[in-house]
Structures are given as structure tokens and as C-alpha cells.
Amino acid sequence: MPDPKFIPLPPRFAPSLPAEQAAEQFHEVMATRRTIRDFSDRPVSLRTIESLVRTAGTAPSGANKQPWRFVCVADPDLKKRIRAAAEAEEREFYATRATEAWLADLEPLGTDPTKEFLEVAPWLVVVFRLAKDDDGGQVYYPQESVGIAVGLFLAAAHHAGLVTLTHTPSPMGFLTEVLQRPKHEKPFVLIPVGYPKPEAMVPSFAMKKKPLDQIMVTFP
Predict the structure, then answer these.
(1) Nearest-CA neighbor of 195 among 76, 46, 40, 48?
(2) Peptide linkage before 171 cis (omega within 30 of 0)
(3) Whole-angstrom distance, CA of residue 30 vs CA of residue 25
């Protein structure tokens, strides 16, 4: 008898192109993705954000525990509070926490403690990593699992014609307080989501990605 714990592989996406061409086509799409800080206030529907989070929720995870929570914020007052708290941490970071080497690496980005985009972007999606599941049970490989889910979220946003920023003010404990999350939810990343301003700019050096021979090793 078949094992009742397993079912046949459900129908899955089948590209119209051969695998090689389909992979190249997807790379061409994703190669145009850029992290930006110049957001437009053009609205993005809740339905769109829900679809992005659903996509993130398809990610694999340790023992299928799905140790993530996507807290999606459009409320202007709440975004203002998040910005104020983030900028307080960022001022401390730039003044006392960051090493000279770190600041030198950040210099080409032109960043500073001011984070206007946290109020301008129509949505702030705060991803939390669950230290245990909602029933108090153990979770496995939460860092890896949440990282994969975030990657799918970013790809889905790009596919939808949106832009994102992976913002990681350090420390991020203020997000737990501002968003009134339980202690077993740990802030992982803060992602503004929206459309770019028509005049949006990106650092020129950010366009330069390492070539394949620097990021891939094969044993054919």
C-alpha cells in the first residue's frame, strides 16, 4: 500500500521554453533588479502585497516549520514611528558603532542616518524570524529558512514591477516594540516596497556584479 504520509508530486509550472533558455530568460529579468532608496508614494494595493507574501510563504523550511512572519505596514503614523526609531539607531551606528572600514565600504552608497524612504514607500514589510513556532514547538534552521523566504519575496516584488530595499538597522529590537510582536518573533529585515521615483538614482558601483567564475565552482 502507498505510504499515506506521501502524495504524488502535484502539477507544477512547466516553462514553454527549454530549461536552458528559461533559466537564461529569468536571469535577464532578475539582472535588472536593483536596491533603491528613491521611492515614489504611488499606492500599491494590499492584494499585491498579499500575493508577494504568499509567494514568500512557498519557501522551503526546516521540517516545514515555516518560521517567519511578514508584518506589513501602510499606516502613516506607524511608519513615522518606525522611521523615528530606525533613525535613532542609525545615528548611534554612524557615530559610535560602525568601524572605519565599515564606513568606508558604505561611503560609495552615499547613505547616512536619514531614512526618508521609511515614510515615503507605500508599504514597509517587516520580516520576523520565529525562535519557536506559535505552539511553543521547536523550529529548525530558522535563519536559512527565513533568508530563502525573503529572497522569494524580493524576486516576486521585482516580477510585479516593484522595487525594494533590504534595510537592517542595528539593533532592530525597536521593531518588536513598535509593532507589538511577541518575544519569540525576532526582527530579521525591514523591506520598504513600492515604485521608484521617475528620477530615482542608484550607485554606479552597485551595477557591477561578480562574474560567474568568481561565484561558481563546478565539478563536471
Answers:
(1) 40
(2) yes
(3) 9
Task: State the distance between the two ends of the chain, measured CA to CA, in whole angstroms.
Answer: 39
Decide if 27 contacts 101 (C-beta within 8 A): no
Whether 34 contacts 163, CB under 8 Å: yes
Mean pLDDT (the chain, rounded): 95
Q: Which of 67, 68, 34, 43 is nearest to 154 (CA)?
A: 34
Q: How far apart are CA 90 and CA 113, in angstroms?
A: 5
* 83-122 per-position pLDDT tens digit: 999 999 999 999 999 999 999 989 988 899 999 999 999 9
Classify residue 96 by its DSSP letter.
I
User: Among 75, 93, 77, 168, which residue's Cα sits nearest to residue 126?
Assistant: 168
Q: How many CB atoms within 10 Å of residue 186?
A: 19
Side chain identity, residue 96:
T
Distance CA 120, CA 180 (A): 22
39 contacts 197 by C-beta, under 8 angstroms: yes
Burial class (CB in 10 A: 0-12, 13-18, 19+), 192: buried
Query: Cβ(80)–Cβ(142) under 8 Å?
Result: no
What's the CA gap between 101 and 21, in Å, rounded?
Answer: 41
Domains in the chain (CATH in brackets) are 35-197 (3.40.109.10)
